[in-house]
Amino acid sequence: MKLCKSNMQLLITGCVAAILLSGCATAPTPEKAGRTTGVITMLTSTEAKNYEKALTSIQEGEPEKAVARLKKLASANPQHPGLWINLAVACYKAGDLQQATDAVTQAAALNDKVPELKNLAGLIAVDQGQYTLAETNYLEAIKLKESYADAQYNLALLYDIFYQDIAKALIHYERYLAVINDGDPATKNWTAELKRTLKRRDER
What we know:
CATH architecture of one domain: Alpha Horseshoe
Shape: elongated
CATH class of one domain: Mainly Alpha
Oligomer: single chain
Helix content: 55-70%
Low-confidence stretches: 1-27, 33-40
């Protein structure tokens, strides 16, 4: 069974923004990198316009265009966490995991208590095949914000696909569905299938 969700949404709070990421995998697909909070530095009107253009490029599926703008902005405003997070997102979307990791490190140095940043670090770790690190990051994201649906979903997917631990996967799929009020029929059906699989195993 193959379920594929595609969702990319731009979230903006003040001068700090990040996008949601998605992909496609067997069973439910990995979700998103979310939104950061707090502004350390303010941007000039020109910088703000360039920031908006960069975010638009990411939203329109042209992350490479965003990378150059965001690098310049982050260099001029190194204390602005949103710039680093969005640079990480753009690099991740462009397939440059090393630059994405470097940008995550810069953002974390400013504020390592942002659950969305931990979730993004988890996505990067999965793409690098570092599943234990991904698990750690998703768990930290959930510890910071238990109602963070994306991290709950990604952790469930990690346990489901890579660890093949149905019991653990079910816990986090159900928490994800609870947060979104069962607003994801595909994942709800997949969760029901996993429950049936687990029941059959227990009956053997």
